[in-house]
């Protein structure tokens, strides 16, 4: 994509579990895709599938995590190095999907596929399961905190409402403090508007 990671304010994942099957020279490849938020959740999916398909020769997988897909991991699970996890991960990157794990369970059919054949089979199994999955666009938000006097309450709340920001926390005791969550692409405009209000303090974005 031509858009830099820093300027993107959406990312794509899948909305629910998906399944597909691919066969090559009597080997059967069962492919599963799951939306996941953390490495622990992804590895739980691996453990559960290995238990369910305990009689399969291989359960290979790859995941991408993070808004930019910056955290990745793959596993060949006994297949020749680079023939399973890497092609699975490659399709996740090609599809621009993150917060997702794809697992491919292989039942050996008695005929060796060779290195190129394995790469092709795991890639095609991944393509098949991603075709069955429903893609979900998610908005990337950033946090912004502000402090101000009561006299600015009306102007600040109008700016917040106009920007579409959400109020996560508010403290209106001795002075006013708000912690906001706002779409990444709208942060700069809201900051600029708030900075024009005399007496308001921007406490930073997180």
Helix content: 25-40%
Output mean pLDDT.
Answer: 90
Coarse structural class: alpha+beta
Uncertain stretches? 1-5
According to DSSP, the number of beta strands is 11
Distance between the termini: 26 Å
Compact overview of the structure:
The chain is of the alpha+beta class.
Mind explaining what this structure looks like?
The protein has 206 residues and is α+β, with helices and mostly antiparallel strands. 31% of the residues lie in helices and 36% in strands. It has helices at 39-52, 85-94, 114-132, 153-163, 187-195; strands at 10-14, 18-24, 27-35, 58-65, 71-75, 100-107, 135-139, 141-148, 166-171, 176-183, 201-205. Strand 2 (18-24) and strand 3 (27-35) form a beta hairpin. Helix 2 packs across helix 3. It is elongated. Mean pLDDT is 90; it is low at 1-5.
Which descriptors would you attach to this protein?
five-stranded antiparallel sheet; single chain; 206 residues; four-stranded antiparallel sheet; alpha+beta; 11 strands
Write the layout of secondary structure elements.
Layout: E1 10-14, E2 18-24, E3 27-35, H1 39-52, E4 58-65, E5 71-75, H2 85-94, E6 100-107, H3 114-132, E7 135-139, E8 141-148, H4 153-163, E9 166-171, E10 176-183, H5 187-195, E11 201-205
Helix pairs in contact: 2-3, 4-5
């Amino acid at each position: 994509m031509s858009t830099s990671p820093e300027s993107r304010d959406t990312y794509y994942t899948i909305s629910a579990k998906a399944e597909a099957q691919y066969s090559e020279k009597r080997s059967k490849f069962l492919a599963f895709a799951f939306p996941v938020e953390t490495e622990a959740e992804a590895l739980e999916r691996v453990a559960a599938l290995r238990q369910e398909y305990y009689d399969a020769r291989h359960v290979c997988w790859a995941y991408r995590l993070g808004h930019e897909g910056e955290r990745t991991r793959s596993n060949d699970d006994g297949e020749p190095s680079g023939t399973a996890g890497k092609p699975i991960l490659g399709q996740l990157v090609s599809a621009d999907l993150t917060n997702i794990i794809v697992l491919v369970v292989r039942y050996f059919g008695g005929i060796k596929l060779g290195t190129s054949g394995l790469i092709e089979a795991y890639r095609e199994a991944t393509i098949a399961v991603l075709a069955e999955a429903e893609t979900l666009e998610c908005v990337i938000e950033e946090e912004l905190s502000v402090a101000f006097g009561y006299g600015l309450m009306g102007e600040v709340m109008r700016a917040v409402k106009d920007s579409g920001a959400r109020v996560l926390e508010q403290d209106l005791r001795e002075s006013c403090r708000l912690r906001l969550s706002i779409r990444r692409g709208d942060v700069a405009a809201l900051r600029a508007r708030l900075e024009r209000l005399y007496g308001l303090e921007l406490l930073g974005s997180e």
